[in-house]
Amino acid sequence: MTRSWLDSPAHHAWLTTEALRLLDFAKAARLPQGFGNLDDDGRLPRCALAETLNTARMTHSFALAHLQGVPGCLHLVEHGVAALHGPLRDAEYGGWFTHPEGQSGSDKAAYLHAFVALSASSAVVAGVAAAPALLEQAIEVIETRFWCEAQGALRESFSRDWQQAEAYRGANSNMHGVEAFLALADVTGDALWLDRALRIVERLILGQAASDGFRVTEHFDPGWQALPDYNRDNPTDGFRPYGTTPGHAFEWARLLLHLEAARMRADLPVSKALLNAAQGLFDSACRNAWHADGAPGLVYTLDWRDRPLVRERLHWVHAEAAATAAALLRRTGEPHYEQWYRCFWDFIATHFIDRVHGSWHHELDPTNQPSARIWGGKPDLYHALQALLLPRLPLAPSLATALAL
């Protein structure tokens, strides 16, 4: 095979150009109280609301851009930090709302708070003056409300006043907890976060998934007993779909490699099981989800017999697949990861990149035409931007810290 795309100046230039195009598109998401969700044409709908999730993801993404030296991004990071300090934060009970106070969505979700912590850590690295205080608040909420030391994982969600806990545990929120914990370890210098990340991985991947052919079980009860029928009647849910989600298998695989590299960097014990599981997750997702219904692309979900269930192709799934192929290629040098890496980017460039209206189509139907059954508009910069950055960086430290070196 010719030189790897990971070492190709032309491929690096393509990644950079595409990242700058995405950033320019995403700047229109700014609202007075944070960042909102853009439509297909890159406009904010008249009724657009700031959201904590998108505000945190945008703040993180613009921090990464600023750290690369992209002009005009620092003030957007500062805007995001101010929104997370202000209208999106619950000054009475602590934590963060889904929308600004007074709007719908007052529950407190681990998924959301993991992204607040991630964005705060990136803003600290970017040098935003108000970011350390935001990071301190986020860490305090995670440690006092969400982290369960006895279970070695995150609790899922609470009522606004923290008095009622949801009778559910989710792999998705814990996966993003691992991502946030890797960044927190770098920014705080505290290896405790790497130990906590490992405990989550041991429960959900080295334990549960590894014993079931590297299928990632998504839904559990409060005692961490699997709920295989969860959302059977709502299979297209954007965050808690029924069945298995190959995109999360890719994402977990990449995070396992980052955790392995981070623990090596910190001179902490590392098990070979992390690499073995990363390879198992990637191989299972490729085998079962790619071209699974006779057409190219990765399907959104599979049933418990590994058959295509929701056949839409989502942009974030393919972004994670490309980033994970790059991580495995960097970690192992094995040529089939190069082949997958090129395959995924060829598919993204052919089907997802919208050269007319900008950004990427967020969803394609089973015939690979733009669709909106699960996700409408183009609200998400985070997954695509990271997929464009990660292939050029080492597996550790985490993104913001790596870009600052």
From TrEMBL:
The keyword Chaperone does not apply. Keywords: Isomerase. It is an enzyme of class 5 (isomerase). InterPro entries: 6-hairpin_glycosidase_sf, 6hp_glycosidase-like_sf, AGE/CE. Signal peptide: none annotated. The keyword Isomerase applies. One of its GO terms (molecular function) is isomerase activity. Its EC number is 5.-.-.-. Gene3D superfamilies: 1.50.10.10. Pfam families: GlcNAc_2-epim. Belongs to the N-acylglucosamine 2-epimerase family. PANTHER family: N-ACYLGLUCOSAMINE-2-EPIMERASE. This is AGE family epimerase/isomerase.
